[in-house]
Design a protein that fits this description.
The chain is mostly beta strands. It contains three helices and 32 strands.
Length: about 550
Amino acid sequence: MKKTFLTISLLVLALAFIVSCGDSKKTDSGDTDTSADTEADTTDTTDPADSTDTVSPNCGNRTVDEGEVCDGGAQDCSTLNPSYTGGIATCKADCSGWDTTGCQGSVNPDPSDTDPDTTDTNPDTTDTNPDTTDTNPDTDNPDTGDDITGEIPVDTNFIRITADSNPNKPAFVTVGDVDQDGKLDMVVAQYGPSLSGNYDIYWGTGKLDQWTKETLNIGGDNGISFPHPVKIADVNGDGINDIVSPSGFLACLTSCGNIFWLEGKGTRNQWTKHEIVKNNDHFFFDVSLVDVDGDGIDDILTNASKKGTLGGQDEQLMWFKGTTTADRFETTKRVISSGNGGPFPRFVDLNGDGKKDIALAQFFNSNISTEGSFIWFEQGSSAENWTKHIIDSESGESFMLEIIDDLYGDGVRRAIGVNHVNSADNASGPKEGVFVFDIPEDPTQPWTKKNIATDIKSRKSPLMGNQAAPGLFGYGDITGNGLIDLVVSGDGDSRVFWFEQNPAGTFTQHTLDGVAGASVNSAGSFGQAGGMQIVDLDKDGKNEIIVTLYEDSKLYIYKYNK
């Protein structure tokens, strides 16, 4: 994720991290009672307009106050009445109940309700089932049972669930079962204000709106300057999950590039820390646990980046050899390329010779037009011998490249890449793009590409730093049709997008959330979003989308409900 301080002095840039966060609607799903009747019957489908209800004076403040059943937001219709087979119910304009005109299916009335509100002139004063067993009356949300209540984002085919309304300026998310309890957890890299970052673990409960947040216990004050996405794996083979962390970024006043791993002790959030790189003058965006040299032991593949205050840049693609010692890794780097590299290198056999190669997008390089926007390194006779090949040199500075098997469902391997540019600053330069690459039989030849983005444009850079678009992306089946879709951060574009694949080989761009040109902490501000994970968090067979807002400090989960 490229932040707004890319080209200014380090001191001024570090101060730019003090932007405060906004507010968010509280959610609650703990009440399993579905028969509460606070004002009018929420399962009433015969009077969706509620034209005779008195409007609460607080209606519209996004909080459920006395006399209101809801205040904004939406629900899956089946949470209001199990007889519904689909659709979304939205809160009525007068906050008196749920407008179910969008619900599908034939509804059976509540048999315990003696006043079914056919005209809504008598708000259930004679209800013979007044919820006497309800121990949690849901003052903030109306009796939604175990189902999720959220808000409707820009794309109304989704529900937006707030996992955390006030995180510490989150950037990246890694999902995994950290404590091995069978429920997925989220490890969120929180950039924080200035240099005060940390990792937070959101312990999963199996429910999308219920998480237990705890700061990752790395020792000391648990602080870390610019944490980046971790890897969750059993590093030492003892059957207990461990965590590997890269960190550092541009605005460090001193060298802050670090890689360490936390050895799990079998007790939740108890670790032994092992340093691999400490206080390096290069920073580390990503790490991969892969067997680079083919000896059967996982190594660490990473890229070290540097950008000086006067414009000097450097990339070093490198790896740290894995060992059978207690520390598990050597601390001496083995350089694959000095001068070429990128934030997220991917380890994959591209030419079919049985040896793994490395593909990546280049960003921190002063000579992209000659060095390549997207490149790959062919492994030769050993892990000490690599040959560089250019995939594409016309896309400008680029951020991510993923090699995806069976992208179109036809068994053919292709690649998805994004650049990271600003056509508002440089109208003659490359345009913002999300590219599908066809990989030729001889991958040493240039790869043909197609830009599937139709509407991504970075905000013009302010005086205090650069903006660029797009940013992070993730891939997976969002709609459940068996085809791979994409979720893409606009980054310098203040929106988050998703690309729907339907039919196979055809992508349609949609705005998931946000408003073009929105400023920080304004309505519709989704700039510099991160996360971009597509994963089945609640294990219901349907993938969710995880989105972080660095600028506006939010952690959201989106559920497809069409």
